[in-house]
Amino acid sequence: MLKSKLRASGSTILSAFFCVLIGLAIGFIVLVVLAYINKNNTYQENAAKYVDNEYAYADVLKADNYLTKSGADDEIVSVLKGEITADQLMQVTSYIKTNKIKPAGKAFTEDELAETMAAALGIENPDDIRSAVPVFTDAVRTIILKPYEFSFGDVLSDAYDKGFRAVLQGGWYNMGDEPLGPRSEIADAAPLIMTGLSVAFAFTTGLFNIGAAGQYTLGAFGALLFALVLKCPWYVCMLAAIVFGALWGAIPGIFKAYFNVNEVITSIMFNWIGLYAVNTIMYGGGNSPMYYVKDSKTYRLEVVSPQSRIPDLKATGSNYFIQPATIAIFFAILIAIILWIMLNKTTFGYELKACGYSKTAARYAGINEKRNIILSMTIAGALAGLGGALYYLSGSVQWNPQDSTALPAVGFNGISVALLASSHPIGSIFSALFISHITMGGSRMEQSIFPKEIANIISGVIIYLCAFMMLFKNRIAKLFTGKEKGGVK
Amino acid sequence: MDDYVIEMRHITKTFPGIKANDDITLQLRRGEIHALLGENGAGKSTLMSVLFGLYQPDSGEIFKDGKKVNIRNPNDANDLGIGMVHQHFKLVEVFSVLDNIILGAEDTQMGVLKKKEARKKVLSLSEKYGLRVDPDALIEDISVGMQQRVEILKMLYRDNEILIFDEPTAVLTPQEIDELIQIMRNFAKEGKSILFITHKLNEIMAAADRCTVLRKGKYIGTVDIADTSKEELSRMMVGRDVSFTVDKKEPEVGDVVLDVQGVTVPSKIHKKNVVHDVSFQVRAGEIVCLAGIEGNGQTQFISALTGLDTMSSGKILLNGKDITHYSIRDRAKAGLSHIPEDRHKHGLVLDYTLEENIVLQRYWEPAFQNHGFIKKGEVRRYADRLIEQYDVRSGQGAVTVARSMSGGNQQKAIIAREIDRGTDLLVAVQPTRGLDVGAIEYIHKQIISVRDSGKAVLLVSLELEEVMNLSDRILVMYEGEIVGEFDPKETTVQELGLYMAGARKQENGNVQSKEEQDDVEK
Predict the structure, then answer these.
(1) Residue B147: which CATH number?
(2) How many residue contacts between A and B have a Cβ separation below 8 Å?
(3) Distance between CA atoms of B300 and B306, rounded to whole angstroms?
(4) Angle of helix A212-224 relative to helix A263-283, nearest 10 degrees?
């Protein structure tokens, strides 16, 4: 029994690993396409400047520089086709350069060019050289576009060096490629684990908590209120966040239980109500005790109330675990484990799951399903609320109440975390770490070429693949067992 | 050599955890009605799906007219002249009868449907075989019986020679069943061959020429109906003798266990009461049956009794204690167990495992939990005991997901759970609905043993045979009221039928016809 259980979870993990690999591969392909588009665009933009015989005086100078440095190569010689020689080409460009025939930025007309060429080469009648003008322009064009030419290998190395490498490295390096260690990633993952757990927990009990973002906001507010105004120690602030988040989860739960209002609708509305309410109170017209005008954000924690900061995660002799990495990650992991035990080992979890699977059967079994709906929404809210505290009590971030148009992305990323972990609490730890890794990596990519949302594409692809997991699962399980055996009673 | 139109030789088909077909051979003669008999989960449907191309067999061969064929999908089957009427009809609700019949076999001319020819063909077929249909009616508007005729016409329209009927009588009234059997006989006379899947013995005896019996995925045998009896068939099907009558002792009636006083339940749809002033008693050691035609308030009454719904007035006493305002859990604790009408909706959490379902009504008892932590070992031991004792069969034992179990075994699990609680009152609502002979017999025995151990049983059933066989007292419910009380030994099915239809009503032991009753009220 244990063996088969191990095998089953082994194949689940393996197939998840497969999904991740395929997701990364697809991400890489997207990066390659984008890198190609970028390279090709640069080339085309430069090429577009050289239409027919028109080209700028400056470009001739560039061509001359190139020629004097490296001489005419085979390609240019082949362009010249015997109309003029490579030496003559150089003669013309250096003539134009030394005599400063045109003011910079001006273009030659065909006649002017023919005259200049005739003068440079010592030919009396410019008409004799006219047929060589297009050849000359072609040669200049080839020289100018040379640096923009690219091979597929260049595209690949661009896609890797400027994009994919950052995704793989995640938050382990800073923007200047200096090694940071896992500290910012851990700091990012802790709140993400909490919102992930919030969504996963609600899923398991048959509810879709899309309101994690709002509960997270309320949690952040509760934590900051107790920290900046009441100057409480950090654990009190965390409790306050739990209470605020729980309240914000409970209300949609009550609506669902007693009025049968879909929790998706109420919690979406509560997201916005929460966000604007929190912003209004925190800003308070600029006079709020929490708002620091100079930073146009909330006060810095270490200045106003150092005791409210969650302690750092310090490893001896290394700066890998200093701020923003706090002991928050341990809280998140601990809570994930507690949730797993609660859902799988206790009567409370048994009741909650029964309600999630079949409300009618739960009712038949004498389970109070109204109470359970409210409780599970409350717990989900508390989890997301704690996530807000874990982030804003780390001391490295301040809330900006004037940036009021966006709900915290970490709330919605919680949905991805839960989906990727197929609502398993322990799995949520790893999927949150993974999502925070590639999200941070995504923002470290060369932004002019690759939008940082590529990270979302990767996690989206992985989640889709996980939905097909069952297909892979059976295949992989077969790898373990060989041929599947039938006739088992 | 016999003229076999279809031969399936040594078919084996395995699904994970179960061997659905194990070396099964089926030979169908031209022009015969061949019944395929077996309990739920015996492998009938799998075998037919193999023949129809829905599944590929792991091993075994199929011959058509002596030639080996390979049926990879239903289209192949169609090309070979094999047609199937599925248990759940595959019709487009918003299409007309004619459209449904030609769907998938449309004749077209330059992309335009040749409906006139199709209509002519359908009408001539329907006349020839007495399959009355209105080609222009929409499927959603016609009766189930007519929908079945449409399915049959679909097969005929495709000139199929081999017709498979998958449990065709389950949805029909007795008159419609007779009609269907007549139609099948006509087909056989025409030279068409019919495979008739069922677990109802009476129909096989009435219609079939030969019968192949399957049991637990294995081939048991093929018999000529003329040389066999109902008893022999059922022995082949179940593997032991099955009694069609229920043996039971005289009841030893004890104290009143359930006392229902004037229960009234308001309707959720209209302003009237669905249950009106119902009063009766159930004593220890007796089975009281609440009989009636579906929709006469039985469901609502049971909901009120078990606490699933509220009632507007009345009182319920259990062992003398007033449980009217108890919660569902408190009623369970007070000694009420309930085999619900809908096993999927109420009886089971389908995504829970068998063991989790077995403790559904007692996971909170100290025997199974310690400070809120479930004792997994105890649960497993208890589940294994019940599975063993009540012979609940499943793929992986206690850890099987309930959804993957057969209907009969799901019901057995519920019955095991409810009976094993040993409460003073067992409320069983249609405990044998949709089950086969073996399972029904088993469940009847269990219910009687509950009675014999001195408990009170309240049975709700729509099957008159079950009502007559099991109960010690019969209460007939009509339009939310109890209209009569009978002793099964002194009444007949016909008499019950009159009361159930509302034609008669008892008042304090006096029998009155409905008209007289109305006069009195005036």
Answers:
(1) 3.40.50.300
(2) 78
(3) 10
(4) 30
pLDDT, tens only, B439-485: 888 889 889 999 999 999 999 987 777 888 889 999 998 888 899 89
Contact flag B374-A345 (C-beta cutoff 8 Å): yes
Cβ contact B85:B163 at 8 Å: yes
| Residue to test with chain B: of A338, A358, A422, most B Cβ within 10 A | A358
For the stretch A225-273, pLDDT in tens is 999 999 899 999 999 999 999 999 999 999 999 998 999 999 999 999 9
* Nearest residue, CB atoms, B373 vs list A346, A360, A361: A346
Residue ranges of alpha helices (H) inside B407-463 are 407-420, 437-452
Closest alpha carbon to A279 in A404, A405, A410 = A404
Q: Which residues contact B165 (CB under 8 A, 6 or more apart)?
A: B84, B85, B184, B194, B195, B196, B197
Alpha helices, H only, B67-110: 74-79, 97-102
| CA nearest neighbour of A71 among A94, A103, A37 | A94
A486 to B396: CB separation less than 8 angstroms, yes or no: no
Residue numbers in A near B327 (CB within 8 A): 366, 368
A451 forms beta bridges with none
Write out pLDDT tens, residues B179-210.
888 889 988 988 899 998 887 787 888 889 99
Q: Which residues pair with A179 in a beta bridge?
A: A173
Give chain B's contact residues with A (Cβ, < 8 Å).
14-19, 58, 306, 308, 327-332, 338, 340, 345-352, 356, 360-361, 363-364, 369, 372-374, 376, 395-396
Question: ipTM more than 0.95?
Answer: no
CATH code 1.10.3470 region(s) in chain A? 174-443
**Interchain proximity A357–B19, CB inside 8 Å:** no
CATH for A174-443?
Answer: 1.10.3470
Q: In chain B, how many domains are there?
A: 2
The predicted-structure confidence for A416-458, as pLDDT tens digits, reads as follows 899 888 889 999 999 999 889 888 888 888 888 888 888 888 8
Q: Print the domain residue range for B223.
A: 4-238
Most confident of the ranges A3-7, A183-187, B502-506: A183-187
At B490 the pLDDT is 87
* Residue B49 in domain: yes
**Highest-confidence segment of B339-343, B353-357, B438-442:** B353-357
| Gap between the Cα atoms of A11 and A479, Å rounded | 9
Instruction: Map residue B224 onto helix, strand or coil.
Output: strand
Cα A19 to the center of its chain, rounded Å: 18
